[in-house]
Write a structure and sequence with these properties.
The model is unreliable at 1-45 (pLDDT under 50). The protein has one domain (24-192): Mog1/PsbP, alpha/beta/alpha sandwich (Protein Transport Mog1p, Chain A, 3-Layer(aba) Sandwich). The chain is built from four helices and ten strands; from the N terminus they run αβββαββαββββαβ. The chain has a seven-stranded antiparallel beta sheet, with helices on both faces. It is α+β, with helices and mostly antiparallel strands.
Length: 199
């Protein structure tokens, strides 16, 4: 499957990250935090957060405080025709949502393919987790990895639906626990009117 991380898009600029002084310990802490928020559903909240709904109501996600979705004219300028780009206003996090062809293959082959593709694209990749999680609209496969040299933690959620696949590709700076938690909330909240494929 040709699913790749957008990681360093030329138009939707990558998050600003503090350079060489980022310690491996801080990166490891964020990895644990990001994995936890992606895999565990948080308890009740005092108020319902805002939601971003895609044109045509194809999908929606939570839009945490401090995050904005690119407007339609800005979105058209992003290479690869993403369905949505969500960015933290301080530049410390970004989530790109894309619609792709229906997924073929198993989660095992997906793990193998993603690992190979990511290793070809980036240096100093450290896989963190690869698991299936249950979202409101059906299952998603979440692959999280670190790039210690770049000071980034990235996560790719693949959500297969009956006739298409959605990918949510997220980047946070190492040490940014609050950003990791918000990205986890965005991924967990993903919902779509497209049905999950029958198993």
């Amino acid at each position: 499957m040709a699913t790749s991380s957008f990681a360093d898009p030329p138009t939707a600029s990558a998050p600003r990250v503090r350079r060489p002084l980022i310690l491996a310990v801080a990166a490891a802490g964020v990895l644990v935090a990001l994995a936890a928020v992606l895999l565990l559903r948080a308890g009740g909240d005092d108020h319902a957060p805002a939601r971003f709904t895609a044109p045509g109501k194809a999908f929606s996600v939570v839009l945490p405080d401090g995050w904005r979705a690119l407007a339609a004219e800005q979105l058209r300028a992003v290479p690869g025709a993403p369905a949505a780009v969500l960015r933290r206003t301080d530049g410390s996090g970004v989530v790109v949502i894309r619609r792709r062809a229906a997924l073929k293959g198993s989660s095992r082959s997906l793990t193998r393919d993603l690992t190979a593709q990511i290793a070809r694209r980036f240096h100093d990749v450290r896989p963190v987790t690869a698991r299936t999680v249950k979202l409101a609209g059906g299952p998603a496969y979440v692959y999280t990895f670190a790039r210690p040299t770049a000071g980034r933690v990235q996560s790719l959620a693949v959500a297969p639906r009956a006739d298409r696949t959605y990918t949510l590709d997220a980047v946070a700076g190492a040490g940014a626990r609050d950003v990791a938690a918000q990205i986890g909330a965005i991924v967990r909240s993903f919902d779509t009117t497209d049905h999950a494929p029958r198993s």
